[in-house]
Specification:
The structure is a single chain. By secondary structure, the chain is an alpha/beta fold. It has a domain at 2-68. The chain is built from 13 helices and 18 strands. The model has no long low-confidence stretch (mean pLDDT 93).
Length: 454
């Protein structure tokens, strides 16, 4: 059993077609019988055709009950709960985003949006910065596949006081790195009260190998996890979330090449990490996050010099583990097939808007389209995707494209206040007036009074 990505090309959805259903059915139809579609991203789209890159689980029959896994099940919401204003903030992993494509450098965006919302729901790529995780207090930290399933309506989220973390670390050939990871876990226990009932040192560990897709996205291949999956299931009643620290195979020189690129090189590690956590969160229905482990001392002790500020958190960390531990400590519990609108849960009826980089079409965007959720797309957050969001069949006013996150926060604040965002901009145009003419002839019937009535 292993996980990989594959590219597909297909025609655009016919007019009036449900985009999400059309794409998922098209991709499913192209897979072999022993393959399971876990997620997809549209990398390029025009009015005539699309290119997609899909995450596929291979040869899973012996380990997975396919009937119990529904990573792409859409349940449409019938109403929006407006008792609170909750924004979902997404910066997809591995697409070279100017903001959020490096090491937690979209954290300030999360804080900004949190200041004008009741709640921000976001994922590790936005706030994970090695030893730093400045997650806003009014936010929910959820793995990417969990966030997608929330928007699809197939799960709900239950807030927790804290989680029991199962820590899984590679039994490194150099004990320095195994010890450093265990010390990080114990530091979290001692300084902010992390509960960690088990530390599993695994040998051999997960096999994560990086690659780049045809679109330039960071991707890769994940294998060697069958034995780990069985152990996770055996211990399932003893933990609430999984934090993994393992070595990622990259070509020689990639670390320095990445730091020397001043942000031009797409972070090679995040894509394959997301593949692993998507797979585990889907199969186990628990929050999951991954942090890389140094391959050896030569890399760990190398001096990268003064690096781009967006990468600096990676240049000063030895284990990269604290951000995942801190995020997972209060990551919400997953509730399968909830009754939408149920008290005490956060589900798709509670989502007020989705904020994304411009040009991004993945499951969150298409789920929002299907659910009638307003989408705010930010031009300044440039990335590798080649999509025109305006070709999708949005309802009037559902898609708002803004220049930057300052403007996005203003739009969110206006929506929360219940005012049309354009009403605070100038020029302010008059309402469009349409003259309605009908072909209906009105027949006026005169009442005839009986003779002698006067």
């Amino acid at each position: 059993m292993w996980v990989s990505e594959r590219e597909f090309s297909f025609a655009g959805a016919p007019a009036g077609e449900d985009y999400f259903s059309y794409i998922t059915e098209t991709l499913d139809g192209a897979l072999a019988g022993d393959e399971l579609l876990l997620r997809f991203v549209i990398t390029e789209s025009t009015s005539s055709g699309m290119r997609a890159e899909a995450l596929i689980l291979h040869s899973a029959e012996a380990y997975v009950d396919r009937s119990s896994i529904e990573p792409l099940r859409l349940i449409r919401r019938k109403f929006e709960d407006t008792s609170s204003f909750n924004a979902v903030l997404v910066v997809p992993t591995g697409i070279g985003s100017e903001i959020g494509g490096h090491a937690g450098d979209a954290g300030p965006v999360a804080k900004l949006l949190a200041s004008v919302c009741d709640r921000v729901i976001t994922h590790p790529n936005v706030v994970n910065a090695s030893d730093i995780n400045e997650l806003p207090s009014n936010s929910l930290y959820v793995e990417g596949s969990i966030l997608s399933r929330l928007l699809l309506g197939s799960i709900g989220l239950q807030q927790v006081r804290s989680n029991r973390i199962l820590a899984v670390i590679d039994e490194h050939e150099d004990s320095t790195f195994t010890n450093a990871a265990i010390n990080s876990i114990n530091a979290a226990r001692a300084t902010y009260g992390l509960e960690c009932p088990h530390v599993l040192a695994v040998d051999p560990g997960f096999r994560l190998k990086v690659a780049y897709s045809p679109s330039g996205r960071a991707t890769g291949e994940v294998s060697n996890f069958e034995a780990h999956l069985a152990e996770f299931r055996r211990l399932r009643q003893e933990y609430d979330a999984i934090a993994i620290s393992s070595v990622i195979d990259v070509p020689p020189g990639y670390h320095q090449k990445y730091f020397d690129s001043s942000g031009a090189m797409v972070n090679p590690w995040g894509g394959v990490e997301a593949m692993l956590t998507h797979m585990l969160s889907t199969l186990l229905d628990v929050p999951t996050a991954h942090s890389p482990m140094f391959e050896g001392r030569e890399i760990a002790h190398a001096d990268p010099g003064i690096v781009d500020a967006r990468m600096a958190a990676e240049a000063v960390s030895y284990t990269f583990l604290q951000c995942t531990l801190k995020g997972l400590q209060r990551s919400p519990r997953i509730v399968i097939r909830p009754q939408l609108g149920q008290s005490g849960l956060v589900d798709v009826t509670n989502v007020s808007c989705l904020v994304i980089p411009d040009k991004c079409i993945g499951i969150p965007t298409l789920a929002a389209l299907a659910q009638g959720i307003p989408v705010i797309a930010v031009r300044e957050n440039k990335n590798l995707m080649r999509n025109d969001l305006t070709i999708l069949p949005w309802a009037p006013g559902q898609l708002m494209i803004v220049d930057n996150y300052w403007e996005a926060a203003g739009v969110v604040a206006a929506m929360r206040a219940g005012i049309a965002p354009e009403s605070v901009r100038r020029p302010f145009h008059n309402a469009r007036t349409t003259m309605l003419k009908t072909d209906i002839e009105l027949n006026l019937v005169r009442k005839v009074e009986p003779a002698g009535s006067h």
